Amino acid sequence: MRTFYTKSRDIRTIKNNGYAVIEMPLHSYSDGKNMIRIELLSENNFSLESLDSYNRKQDVNKVYRRIDGEYALVECKYTEDWDLDKKRSVAKKICSDEYITYIALDNDKVVGFIGLLKKLRGPYMILDMMQVSSECRGLGIGRQLFEAGKAEARKAGAQALYISACSSEETIAFYRAMGSELASNPIKEIAEEEPFDLQMICPVKD
Questions:
Q1: Contact at 8 Å (CB) between 200 and 166?
Q2: Sign of CA dihedral 48, 132, 149, 121
Q3: Domains and CATH numbers, the chain
Q4: CA pair distance 34, 27, nearest whole angstrom
Q5: What gap in Å lies between CA 197 and CA 41, rounded to an integer?
Q6: pLDDT digits (tens, 9 = 90+) for 33-86
Q7: Which of 54, 108, 179, 200 has the highest CB neighbour number within 10 Å of its CB?
């Protein structure tokens, strides 16, 4: 899981081809004409090449590690990035029938996405992947993608989103800002697959 803390911006919702589309001004443009759109992924707005120019890069300085039974921030410097094969693999994954995916579009360029597993795990809908491109972090895109995920979880009858969250300081700050907390009863196989992730849940009821 990879997400980033973002600040909310002015938002308006319109309808486009039967889908709810959330638009918000890109704050780096002063004319207000360039908009980020949040749309449900479909064959009309996404292909296996749609992430080819996606900028995954994240410079991590601190991560959470469990020390004496408690999580604490420790220094751990590294850079996360994706090569073309990884981008194509992720694109194939999030457009499969197992996922409900929303994408953030700057014109027609994908600058963020959230991928949710359709099949519930008990009371949870699994938030499997979430990303905002490097150049678009801090615009409120992550918040809007997360809200779209919560809405899908409510629609499916889930009580909460379940998140295996990357342990970086920024990622955990984002999820906490969204109302997430550490899971008291983590899903064992997910926790074992990503032993350094923090297992978190976010209630989705209004």
A1: no
A2: positive
A3: 12-54+83-203 (3.40.630.30)
A4: 9
A5: 27
A6: 458 999 999 999 999 999 999 999 999 999 999 999 899 999 999 999 999 999
A7: 200
